[in-house]
Amino acid sequence: MAFRALLAPAVLSACVLAAGPAGAHARLVTSDPAAGATVAAPKAIRLTFNEKLAPAFSTFDLAMADGMKAPVKISVSQDRKTMTGVPKGRLMAGIYRVAWRAASADDGHRMDGAFTFTVK
């Protein structure tokens, strides 16, 4: 019985140490334009994440409120933490929705999110 009492905490400690950090999820830190902002037509849309992205699996779509997509050319920064999308034409006035997908470079875990901004 004493052996079991000593074994249980040792096994629990080993499991906690082996699990390591729960991180490795790319989370959106900032965006330009910011979520909810009203801005002049931006020449670029930048999404910055808390960790490095896997560029092949990280992107975003830009669409107007009616669902019509606005084409953007997307690139990932050299530090692999920022995605930049350059609209292929001038954005018209209205509400835009950015729907992003970001995969962590560490483990490939994918996160999704969305926000809106308004072009005046």
Secondary structure elements and pairings:
Blueprint: H1 2-19, E1 28-32, E2 38-39, E3 45-49, E4 59-64, E5 72-76, E6 82-87, E7 94-103, E8 110-119
Parallel strand pairs: 2-8
Antiparallel strand pairs: 1-3, 3-6, 4-7, 5-6, 7-8
The share of residues in helices is 10-25%
Strand order within the widest beta sheet: 1-3-6-5
Output the radius of gyration: 21 Å
Basic shape: elongated
Q: Ranges with pLDDT <50 over ≥5 residues?
A: 3-22
Mean pLDDT: 86
| SS class | alpha+beta
Cα distance spanning the termini: 73 Å
By CATH, the architecture is named: Sandwich
Please, what is the oligomeric state?
A: single chain
The name CATH uses for the topology is: Immunoglobulin-like
How many H/I helices? 1
Number of domains: 1
Q: Would you state the CATH class?
A: Mainly Beta
Q: Main sheet?
A: 4 strands, antiparallel
Strand percent estimate = 35-45%
How many beta strands in the DSSP annotation?
A: 8
The secondary-structure element order is HEEEEEEEE
Folded structure, characterized:
The protein is α+β, with helices and mostly antiparallel strands. It has one domain (24-119): Immunoglobulin-like (Sandwich). The protein is 15% helix and 41% strand. The chain is built from 1 helix and 8 strands. The longest helix has 18 residues, at 2-19.
What are the main properties of this structure?
single chain; 120 residues; 4-stranded antiparallel sheet; 4-stranded mixed sheet
Short summary of the structure?
With 120 residues, the chain is α+β, with helices and mostly antiparallel strands. The protein contains one helix and eight strands, in the order αββββββββ. It has a single domain (24-119), classed as Immunoglobulin-like (Sandwich), CATH 2.60.40.1220.
